[in-house]
């Protein structure tokens, strides 16, 4: 993983590291019931050190290949891990886009942390990765995510049936996009 840190007003984001496992497992474990409504089915060993190490290995490979870029979100005060953001499915060639994925500790929601984190990641994607567009999707009833995406400049562009498997079920998604031209203005 690169030695990279994205600095915000209240947060910093960086690629995950082996020493993050205990804090990551604690936060994810505490949020298991909350997050499972929004994520793929969690494997049985999903909070184990071995799972985390395999995850890190895959994320490092994705960074090296330019396929995806994973970040953990930390509060500057206390350096508490509160979430994560992934730049997924990087498409090069004529398209130059990627998809955002994100999660935040339930107790930290509603305080603007994810908006700050996504702005940092999007700036990195447009400037450093030279992407032209970000895509994002969310469950139709996830109004908090819809509000967040619109707040940071995404525009709702469509609807996809049975788009992503969430908690073992194929789920519909509302689709959003943010091209660099909109971000720059």
Sum this structure up briefly.
The protein has 185 residues and is an alpha+beta fold. It is built from six helices and eight strands. An eight-stranded mixed sheet has the order 1-2-3-4-5-6-8-7, sandwiched between helices.
Structural features:
single chain, 185 residues, alpha+beta, Aminopeptidase, eight-stranded mixed sheet
Give a written overview of the molecule.
The protein is of the alpha+beta class. The chain has a domain at 6-132: Aminopeptidase (3-Layer(aba) Sandwich), CATH 3.40.630.30. Helices cover 32% and strands 33% of the residues. It has six helices and eight strands. The chain has helices spanning 21-30, 32-35, 49-65, 113-127, 143-151, 180-184; strands at residues 6-7, 11-14, 69-75, 81-91, 97-104, 133-138, 155-166, 169-179. An eight-stranded mixed β-sheet has the order 1-2-3-4-5-6-8-7, sandwiched between helices. It is globular, with a radius of gyration of 16 Å. The chain starts with 5 loop residues before the first strand and ends with a helix.
Silhouette: globular
Alpha plus pi helix count: 6
Radius of gyration: 16 Å
Helix vs. strand class: alpha+beta
Q: Which strand order does the major sheet show?
A: 1-2-3-4-5-6-8-7
Name of the level-1 CATH class of the domain at 6-132: Alpha Beta
Q: In whole angstroms, how far apart are the ends?
A: 32 Å
Largest sheet: 8 strands, mixed
CATH superfamily of the domain at 6-132: Gcn5-related N-acetyltransferase (GNAT)
Which residues form runs of ≥5 with pLDDT under 50? none
The percent range for strand residues is 25-35%
From N to C, what is the helix and strand string? EEHHHEEEHEHEEH
Q: CATH architecture of the domain at 6-132, please? A: 3-Layer(aba) Sandwich
- CATH topology assignment of the domain at 6-132: Aminopeptidase
- What's the average pLDDT? 97
Total beta strands: 8
| Percentage of residues assigned to helices | 25-40%
